[in-house]
Amino acid sequence: MGTSIKLIKIILVLFVFLILAGKPVLSDDTCMFQVSADDVPPNIVLLLDNGAEMENIIWHAGYNNSFDYTPAAGTDTITWGDGSTTNGFLNQNGYAVVKVATGKYYIRPILADLKPDPDNGNGFFSATNEITINSRSITLPFEPSSIKVDGIIDKAARFRYSKNYLNWLFYGAYAGDGSDLPVQSRFYFAKKAIFTVAELSQRQAYFGIYSFSANAMGASNVQPLGFVYDAAGIVNPNFVNNINNLGSVYYSPLAEGLASLGGYYASPKSDTLPAAVGEYCQKSFVIVITSGVSSEDQAVAAGSAPASFSDYDNDGEGQISLTDGTTTTLVTIPTNINGSTYLDDVAYYLYTHDVAGYQSGFQNVTTYTIGFMGNAESNAYLKNASNNGNGNLNLYNTSDVEYGKYHFEAQNPDNLAGVLLDAINAILSKTSSFTAPVVPVTRTTSGNQIYLAFFKPGESNFWEGNVTKFGLSSDAQILDADGIAATWPNGAMKEDATPYWGTIDWADTSKTNGIDNSARNIYTYLGLDNELTHFSNSFSVSELTPALLTTYDDSTGPLELINITGTFSIGNVLTGSDSGAAATISLVNASDISYSGRTGFFRTGEVVTNGSGASGTIANSGTTEVINYIRGADVHDEDEDNNTSENRAIICGDPLHSEPVVVNYGDL
After folding, report:
1. Is 560 left (phi over 0), alpha (psi -120 to 50) or beta?
2. How far is CA 387 from CA 283, 400, 424, in A?
3. Reported pTM
4. How distant, in Å, are the alpha carbons of 56, 122, 158, 391 from that of 255?
5. For residue 32, what is the DSSP state?
6. What is the DSSP letter of 487?
């Protein structure tokens, strides 16, 4: 009878251990449980604005764009080809330096259609690109380089100069002759940022690139989705060529371009191209890199998603009303010729719709934005698009912690690579952190509450689990802690749904349900008291002595659950001997490995050997480690901080093939 009781005890301990330690996936387990970037890399498509704004030349370090350099009245005027004069540069659309022929250079104003004025009579003539105005002679770069600089070809069609920048050069504090002026466009630095980030984040995501086409109808594919570096760390030469061969165009149909990406994600596999969303658990993102000024952006191209423009977010068009909780500011969204303000509507549509209908489940597209050398108004517009594209519909309160959370800004061209990397890291962090799978593993209801079990697989034996509590409405709709619907119409969980609590927070003592592992109340019947919660039944090192954690071989006596320390050949059977008794454990790994910490049933002090003659000594610390591990301690020092008594990062193991059971304390 005593033997049976002890066997029950050890089976109970091992059962708890298995529940917390995870297990291999079974044959009927599917992609729905592969929820991290390590398992299924996210799709990230960059919508790179290659319109007129990207042709702006990079400013000299001494220039301050926030200051107005328009010269005072009476300053030396500029005489144009038609004989008219202006007090400095005044054209709102800026200027381009154009070489017409040898010995013929013109500073031409940019027209409302974003093209340089073709009439030489409206330009400022010079025999060379050394321009003399206000008694200053400055050599102005007029054409981006067509050769590689640091492996990058600029390939902007021209350099554009803002009126304010030219006024600074000829009327402001600039004292040089032009030899120290930057000779790259914004477009060059955008390409440089993409190359840099692709190298730093290689094989962590599938990358693709879209840019605007010359016909101003949406955007076209520059780089198909996929890894741009191979497993050996070698960049795909097609990726390099695709970026370097990309040129600039006149217009930036931002909303049309984002809708084109929606169409790309919505397209199923064809004879020539794979489907953009390869797995139904795969997450899909867009990062829009732009100054935020739309042009020729009135109607979506064929094959887009959505198929037409509409005020999907119901906020009206053209203006944004921002507030900090006290003051309200009305922001007019800037546009160029035939521009629109539908970008935030398309972002909202892509976030709230099942875009990839060819995959089961719910696959939306999440939009991030990067304001590259834009102004306050254009960045406010991009922030709203990113808010809508992440479920924060029309969030105009600038004091809200979620406001602009998915928008990034680079006012300096050298900062763009770092900002783009920040955006990608935010995506990777989001897809690598513990999030709900497409659908819950199991669910249990109790009154107006529902308990959902999720898990995240890993490469180790431990798979992370999370049991969460949500609300349940009278019509059986799952509600989050804020009373908002926690699921999409097809039943898939929303990523941003906030539970009342989750067991994932057990390890975080700052959370309401967080607790240090040493203070957890865990009990198992040990035979001394019938009251389960009596201290003698505590699942702790003090009560669970090594003598209690044993199993019996009737002929040889007890064998304790302890550690094996040593190096052994894999595939052999370890055999321990003590006074003629023997116990065995099989090794199943694929290569030789040090087996420090491996658990099995052996006697303390036994010498373990194998067929190759290797040996190791059994240590007796295994009991304490197993108990503390089950309690949630970081016994293996997973965070490598030399503290094995603290909570490990995730305490709850996966609940696969199990189901939550509700215990109503009112009935106890």
Report:
1. beta
2. 18, 11, 17
3. 0.69
4. 22, 34, 25, 18
5. G
6. B
Give the H or E element holding residue 16: helix 2-21
Q: Measuring CA to CA, how many Å separate 637 from each of 14, 461, 650?
A: 22, 15, 13
- Residues of the chain predicted below pLDDT 70: 1-39, 271-273, 431-446, 456-461, 489-492, 545-623, 656-659, 664-668
**Identity at 581, one-letter amino acid code:** A
Rounded CA gap, 452 and 493, in Å? 10
Q: What is the pLDDT of residues 111-141, one digit of tens each?
A: 999 999 999 999 999 999 999 999 999 999 9
Q: How far apart are CA 481 and CA 438, in angstroms?
A: 20
In which element (H, E) is residue 568 found? strand 567-568
Q: How far apart are the first and last CA of the chain?
A: 31
Residues in the chain: 668
Q: Which pLDDT belongs to residue 547?
A: 60
Please write the tens of the pLDDT for every residue from 432-486. 544 443 334 455 666 788 888 777 655 566 777 888 888 888 887 889 999 988 8
- DSSP annotation of 57 reads B
Q: Side chain identity at 446, as an amino acid letter?
A: S
Where would I find the beta strands (DSSP E) of 176-252? 206-212, 219-226
Residue 150 burial (CB count, 10 A) = 8
| φ, ψ for residue 334, nearest 5 deg | -75, 140
